[in-house]
Design brief:
The chain is an alpha+beta fold and 805 residues long. It has 29 helices and twelve strands. Strand 8 (145-148) and strand 9 form a beta hairpin.
């Protein structure tokens, strides 16, 4: 049918939809200037009986006259032509640029009461006109309510009468029920639609929007205790204005005689409901009723701090708004406040979906639109904050999180992202305070809406950041139970299981995340780490390589692949990957430290010293870097410097409560001070510390990183150990933008998960980066005689929490 001319005038461009009795096409009117778009509905006729054909022709003309009358309304498409050609019937209608309301009503993202009331009023006003023409729409549902692009008003499309006409023309029958299950009243299902059948359908749409349901969930609302009644049981799912609930209940009564009898009657009762349509908090998914007098004294009031720029020099990109954004926003002048809110929510949801699947620039563009349409959209600022963090635009992220908390001091996602910002600024106390606040707010959101997966995911992200890995697993599991396709939740659970030593569980979760979203490079990087931990090195290399194919600028994937190469004994490949990581993030302490280990094993002690020095300059709290540098100094005969480094390592281990680390550092220190190394004495035997068994990673703070010390292993031959050490492994942070999650419809009033996305770092060295840093042991052995190269010590650093929204 493509390219076909109907009536020698309308060229078919593409199929928009269709069924057994006809199809709908997007077409161009070749006789009008500019060849404007139009919609053609083809009604097929199968009989060769001339009497049936004549009957079909009369039905067609009658319905065309009705549609022409309806098209005089501004919010109903105009009928441009009715055509009979080759015993087929065509209706040509005005094309409405825009999008269906099904893109605004998103599962898991409930609308506010004010939004629902405005929607009801607008559609009911159209129905007053339609019913006044003696017409029943028969198929009201979100897909048939178009948001017109020019002014964002609702346009009622796809009248069921046309579908019924198609069945009558094809079958000569008036008994076919036209409509959509879930929105269709009982009498309409039985082939006897009433005017208030349209009211039932619109009431079902209102319930769907209020509860944030998918279309197929509407049928689950039927009274299970009395299934034959057909009544919808929904009010126990959400606390709303009882007057509004009464109106909707009366719209969806199963018995049409107990229903409202006219659209005007519904409008009259809605007019008596007082609503606050100026509500600007972001979304009912994370709305908490409490005083707004939240303490903000700990939140930075300045936008840019010199020390922030010094700590994060690579983060200097700014995201700008395109001309297209201004053009769209310009088209909103003159439309109602609540309509703008719904349009803003539409673009907000597009941003969340884009961020969830890694299209960060598109996410920024969508958030920009949402914010320009509604400058008070706190949740959009919070989510854009997280997305800007992932794009390394720290300045913009700080501005957005500040603005989000100014508008809504109780925004859980903004607090989570502020925690991530503070973590990068090494303000652990402030970060912990924000994470704790995010946990509190998300817990309250869960009480309000226990069926929404997002607050569980966000709370789990904050718990992960605080080192509560088991709590993070519990929350991520709950989010997955509510949304089995929540890729980010699988990644959070993968990382937490990995840090607890449950590597196979971690592998299963990260594999599932990559199946849901093959472009989730964080999932591939975490999968790489856990595969390496179970000894499946080739699969680990493949996973890290896949992550780098998706995101060639991810330093964590390079670092983790370097770890695998080092475990395989391919130190040159490891060094190459560590250098690639450093090129992409000059503040990557883990990569510098691991580079030092690899250089040590290549017999390059001076190069190792230089790398450890860089690691210490980035993060002076890594005791392992001081310890390893001290041993390399001793290897080169620089005893005074070696003793100073070993003493500092001992001091840091003591500050961090790591007794085994203190014992190890003191063992080496005593040997140096006694001149044992210079004299070529044997390595200490009886003084070797015993490595503790790590049941669960301790709670992490940059001031007190956890470092587990393992005993020195005897080398097979004098010199370096044969088995490669376990360097610091970095785990990228899971996305919080949605969840693919993911992710709920945030009505005009809530960012996120976000998150948008937490940045994860792992102890003991708070390697502060976007993704989480899983720091594994950096292994060193006791000093060898001065005549032999000094083997590196074995030091394990448990990972630190951290997703970033």
């Amino acid at each position: 049918m493509m390219g076909t001319l109907v009536d020698g005038r309308y060229e078919v461009v593409k199929v928009l939809g269709g069924g057994a009795f006809g199809q709908t096409f997007l077409s161009k009117d070749l006789r009008r200037p500019g060849h404007p778009d139009c919609v053609i509905k083809q009604l097929r006729y199968f009989s060769t009986n001339p009497q049936i054909l004549e009957h079909a022709r009369r039905l067609f003309k009658k319905e065309a006259e009705i549609l022409e009358r309806l098209g005089h309304h501004d919010q109903i498409p105009t009928l441009l032509a009715d055509i009979e050609e080759n015993q087929e019937f065509y209706l040509v209608q005005q094309f409405i640029p825009g999008y269906p309301l099904s893109e605004e009503i998103t599962p898991g993202l409930p609308w506010t009461e004010a939004q629902v009331i405005d929607l009801l009023k607008e559609v009911l006003t159209i129905l007053v006109f339609v019913h006044g023409q003696g017409v029943i729409h028969r198929d009201i549902k979100p897909a048939n309510l178009m948001r017109r692009q020019s002014d964002y008003k609702i346009v009622l499309i796809d009248f069921g009468a046309v579908k019924e006409l198609g069945t009558q023309i094809a079958q000569g029958s008036r008994t076919i029920a036209v409509g959509t299950p879930g929105y269709m009243a009982i009498e309409q299902f039985n082939g006897q639609p009433q005017f208030n059948s349209d009211l039932y359908a619109l009431g079902a749409v209102a319930i769907q929007a209020l509860l944030g349901l998918a279309a197929d969930e509407l049928t689950n609302l039927k009274d299970r205790n009395n299934p034959h009644s057909g009544e919808l049981i929904w009010r126990d799912r959400k606390s709303i204005n009882p007057k509004l609930a009464d109106v909707i209940d009366r719209m969806v009564r199963a018995d049409y005689r107990e229903r409202y009898q006219s659209a005007l009657a519904v409008l009259a009762d809605l007019g008596a409901i007082a609503t606050d349509t100026t509500d600007t908090s972001a979304t009912s998914t994370i709305i908490v009723t409490q005083s707004s007098q939240t303490d903000t004294s700990h939140r930075p009031t300045t936008i840019a701090l010199p020390e922030t720029q010094q700590a994060l020099p690579r983060r200097r990109k700014r995201i700008t708004t395109g001309i297209a954004t201004l053009a769209i926003v310009g088209g909103l002048v003159g439309i109602g406040y609540s309509q703008k809110g719904q349009v803003a929510a539409y673009f907000f949801n597009q941003g969340r979906q884009a961020a969830r699947y890694g299209n960060l620039k598109k996410a920024i563009d969508s958030y920009n639109l949402a914010i320009q349409i509604n400058p008070h959209y706190a949740e959009a600022y919070a989510r854009r904050c997280g997305t800007r963090l992932r794009l390394e635009d720290d300045q913009g992220a700080i501005e957005d999180c500040n603005r989000a908390l100014d508008l809504d001091p109780n925004n859980a996602v903004a607090h989570l992202n502020w925690g991530n910002i503070r973590t990068e600024q090494r303000d652990r106390e402030g970060a912990n305070r924000d994470y704790a606040r995010s946990i509190e707010l998300n817990s309250q959101a869960i009480q309000l809406d226990p069926q929404n997966p997002d607050p569980y995911y966000y709370r789990g992200s904050a718990r992960f950041r605080l080192g509560d890995y088991r709590g993070a697993i519990t929350d991520a599991t709950q989010a997955i139970q509510l949304d089995a396709e929540f890729a980010d939740a699988y990644v959070t659970r993968c990382q937490a299981n990995g840090l607890l030593g449950e590597h196979q569980k971690a592998i299963d979760d990260c594999t599932k995340a990559t199946q849901i979203n093959p472009n989730h490079y964080v999932a591939h990087t975490s999968l790489c780490n856990n595969l390496s931990n179970v000894g499946n090195y080739q699969a680990a290399i493949d996973a890290c390589t896949q992550a780098l194919q998706i995101n060639p600028n991810d330093p964590h994937a390079y670092n983790n692949r370097g770890v695998v190469w080092s475990r395989l004994g391919n130190y040159q490949a490891a060094i190459d990957d560590y250098n690639q990581a450093i090129q992409r993030d000059a503040k990557d302490a883990a990569a510098y430290h691991n580079l030092g280990d690899a250089l040590s094993r290549q017999g390059n002690p001076q190069g190792a010293i230089d790398a450890y020095t860089q690691a210490i300059q980035v993060n002076p709290m890594i005791a392992a870097s001081f310890l390893n540098r001290g041993l390399r100094m001793a290897e080169l005969g620089r005893m005074e410097e070696a003793i100073a480094d070993l003493q500092q390592a001992s001091n840091l281990y003591a500050q961090q409560g790591q007794k085994d680390g203190v014992t190890l550092a003191q063992t080496y220190l005593q040997r140096l001070q006694q001149g044992a190394i210079a004299q070529g004495n044997d390595q200490p035997q009886s003084q070797e510390p015993v490595a503790p068994t790590l049941e669960a990673p301790p709670e992490f703070s940059p001031e007190n990183p956890s470092v587990i010390t393992e005993p020195p292993q005897p080398a097979a031959t004098p010199g370096f150990i044969e088995n490669p050490p376990a360097p610091i492994i970095q785990e990228p942070a899971p996305y919080t933008e949605e969840p693919p999650q993911a992710e709920p419809y945030i009505p005009f009033n809530e960012e996120p998960p976000v998150f948008e996305e937490p940045v994860i770092e792992e102890p003991p060295a708070p390697v502060e980066q976007e993704p989480p840093v899983f720091e594994e042991p950096v292994i060193e052995e006791p000093p060898a005689p001065a005549s032999e190269p000094l083997p590196p010590p074995v030091i394990e650093e448990p990972p630190a929490p951290a997703p970033e929204l």
